[in-house]
Specification:
Elements lengths: L1 E12 L8 E17 L2 E5 L2 E16 L36 E14 L3 E12 L19 E9 L3 E9 L5 E12 L2 E10 L1 H7 L5 E10 L4 E10 L4 E12 L3 E10 L9 E10 L3 E4 L5
Antiparallel strand pairs: 1-2, 2-4, 3-4, 4-5, 5-6, 6-7, 7-8, 8-9, 9-10, 10-11, 11-12, 12-13, 13-14, 14-15, 15-16
Length: 294
């Protein structure tokens, strides 16, 4: 992978009680060279297939500007996780860049069985030759070593899945755990996610939300009518960020949805609230919901 990019930033900062307003502009050049090496080892036996894949990504990049000199508006709570662990450039947006040399190494495994079950696992870590002071511990890019990332999953066809991801420090203390289960059976579709973040991470990134759970379900009442339910609960405060229930009518071309929504956590100055929500849309053209008027 070879990549060369040029960025131009033109920005203004509003006045605060501590700093005056100002405007500025910056130009930045960025170059990246990277390679990913995989060595899949496969074994086939009666009724199962086993895959073990060591993987390593080696990358080097340079930037004409340090991150601290560029306003960061699109990755303010970035955290290196399993999804981007082996990516040479882990950022999906443009403001932040990673510079210097780095190596991400680990192993992926998968066991597929003829009865429909699949087991997956991931273990990896990232090393850097230079630290960037902009990255805090919460980002998992502080210093020159990331925490260990460990994950596993169990799947049964498209009917059921369960996944658990962990972030472990050098002492193998759990810094973050996130689990997710999904089900798609008969007339029911559902998902539930639970997370727990350590004080070391949450005090920087999520001071009021260290532990939470999210549950969603859709029940097909008839061919055209569905009952929807979702709740996001902050277990640290024992309050619902949002709890909503709705009925949805749909056909091949459009849908209409009406529901009830409750919030118990302050959101942009609005405290505990209750509301009636609606939505209407064409399946191929877009939609309008009460969120468009928020």
């Amino acid at each position: 992978l070879l990549r060369v990019r040029g960025d131009y930033f033109d920005y203004s900062v509003a006045q605060t009680n501590a700093t005056p307003a100002f405007e500025d502009s910056e130009a930045r050049g960025y170059g990246l060279a990277a390679a990913t090496v995989r060595w899949p080892l496969a074994r086939y036996s009666e009724g199962s297939r086993i895959l073990i894949e060591p993987i390593m990504t080696i990358a080097y990049s340079e930037s004409s500007l340090e991150n601290i000199l560029v306003p960061n508006e699109d990755s303010t709570k970035f955290e290196l996780d399993h999804a981007v662990l082996f990516e040479a450039d882990p950022f999906t947006q443009q403001d932040l860049v990673e510079t210097g040399g780095r190596i991400a190494a680990g192993v992926r495994t998968a066991v597929s069985m003829d009865n429909g079950f699949t087991l997956r696992g991931t273990l990896g870590r990232r090393w850097r030759d230079e630290a960037d002071p902009l990255f805090t511990y919460a980002s998992n890019l502080a210093g020159t070593e990331s925490d260990y990332l460990v994950g596993g999953a169990l799947e049964y066809d498209d009917t059921f899945s369960f996944a658990a991801n962990f972030r472990l420090n050098d002492d193998f203390d759990i810094q973050r755990v996130e689990t997710r289960a999904t089900v798609d059976w008969w007339r029911l579709k559902g998902d539930v996610t639970y997370f727990n973040v350590s004080d070391d991470i949450s005090m920087e990134a999520l001071p009021l939300q260290r532990q939470g759970i999210s549950l969603g379900a859709t029940v097909e009442l008839t061919e055209d009518v569905e009952l929807l339910y979702r709740i996001n609960r902050n277990l640290e405060a024992n309050l619902n960020q949002i709890q909503a229930v709705a009925l949805r009518w749909s056909d091949e071309c459009s849908f209409f949805q009406i529901g009830y929504q409750q919030r118990e956590i302050n959101d942009r100055g609005v405290g505990n609230s209750e509301s009636i929500t609606f939505g209407f849309g064409f399946n191929t053209l877009g939609q309008v919901t009460s969120g468009n008027f928020d």
